[in-house]
Amino acid sequence: MRRGLLRNCYAIAGPNVRHSFAGDSVLIFHAMCERYVLPDQVTAEREFMPARAWWNFTAKFNVAPQQYVPAIRWHDGQSEAVMMRWGLIPSWAEGKWVGTPPACVEIDEIQSSPTYKASWLSSQRCILPVAGFYAWQLTETKYRQPFFVRLLERSVFGLAGIWDRSVGEDDDVIESCSVIRVPANDLMKTIANTENRMPAILRRRDYQTWLRGTPVEAKAALQPYRANWMQAYAVSPRINSAAPDDPDLIRPIH
Questions:
Q1: Which of 73, 134, 142, 251 has a CA 20 to 30 Å removed from the CA of 116?
Q2: CA atoms within 13 A on the CB side of 48
Q3: pLDDT, tens digit, 9 for 90 and up, residues 80-93
Q4: d(CA 195, CA 9)
Q5: pTM of the model
Q6: For residues 168 and 113, which has the higher predicted lDDT (pLDDT)?
Q7: Mind listing the pLDDT tens digit for each residue in 103-133?
């Protein structure tokens, strides 16, 4: 909804919605890369060629945190495609988390944060297949305009993630993940202008390094993607809700 439609109204936020206030208006928005577009399974397998595929999914235009998402990881000497919950719960939490588990983590936090340190030292890294992601721009009128961001040279690409396995009291196993965020490139500084961050997009040549390399080698692969290889355009504010899931979500608006 546009700013004017929210005047004198209250909005109830979902677990990953943040609020900003301008006068008597409520502005609803999401953090950078807390929504993305998922390709179909065949296309994802063609891009990443996992040795073992245990995942099962269909294309989606509105993937949100706390949903189960496909991910590729390195396990027993092979690449393995599995489903994980988006929002990492660390092993020490024993399946419990107060509030909403984090969908994203800053690159500077993965080695020091208690939530991620053990996963990082254990090389529990993964790749999330995406066809594009959403970002929100704060306009001069204080309206949060959603944008769809994609790559020009690849219809499907991988975001760098980190994962963990947490076992609850009833021996319920939760495997979950977070997307890693890096400093924004010039394009994303313009779009995500209140955060200046972007998801860590992996180059094809870095897939194996990210999955199998040492922590030092893997971290070196996390660089802001080249802005001239990306495209971003404004889309409908329908994406502010987790309910819609149709191709019109990525249709450009003028």
A1: 134
A2: 36
A3: 999 999 999 999 99
A4: 26
A5: 0.87
A6: 113
A7: 999 999 999 999 999 999 999 999 999 999 9
What residue type is 178 in one-letter code?
Answer: S
Residue owning tokens 């008597």: 24
The three-class DSSP label of residue 3 is helix
The number of helices, as runs of H, and strands, as runs of E, in the chain is: 5, 16
Q: Which CATH superfamily is domain 3-250 in?
A: SOS response associated peptidase-like (3.90.1680.10)
Domain locations along the chain: 3-250
Q: Distance between CA 33 and CA 143 in Å, rounded?
A: 18
Task: Report the run of H or E that residue 47 belongs to, with start and end.
Answer: helix 41-48
- What is the pLDDT averaged over residues 1-25? 29
Q: Rounded CA gap, 14 and 17, in Å? A: 5
Q: What is the CA radius of gyration of the chain?
A: 18
Q: Please report, as a single letter, which amino acid is at residue 23.
A: G
Residue 31: pLDDT band with limits 50, 70, 90: low
Average the pLDDT over 170-188 and give the result: 95
Amino acid, res. 27: L
